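Submission checklist for the structure archive. All mandatory fields must be present; incomplete records are returned to the submitter.

[x] Identifier: RQC P-site tRNA stabilizing factor
[x] Organism: Enterococcus alishanensis
[x] Residue count: 89
[x] Sequence attached
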Amino acid sequence: MRLDKFLKISRIIKRRSVAKEVADKGRIYVNGKLAKSSSEVKVDDTIKIQFGNKVLEVAVEALHESTKKEDAAKMYRIISETRREDNEN
């Protein structure tokens, strides 16, 4: 499944266009490698996303073509969620 689609369906990022923009700005890593919005995501991959001063790292648990709001959180498991200091790059 495409990275931008996974982020939207899992509701980590609300809109696919926003997910694409974040990926294309170099703020998303899949398994430690810089990812594009078109990068393929598989079960057991780790995704690290930089949102401003917050860094979210998740593990992909399941892939679904569509999902209900209450089932979206079952598609991933949060590994870590940290805040970045202003002096970090």
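[x] Structure attached
Curator remark: The beta strands are 28-30, 33-34, 46-51, 54-60, 76-83. The domain at 3-83 is CATH 3.10.290.10 (Structural Genomics Hypothetical 15.5 Kd Protein In mrcA-pckA Intergenic Region; Chain A).
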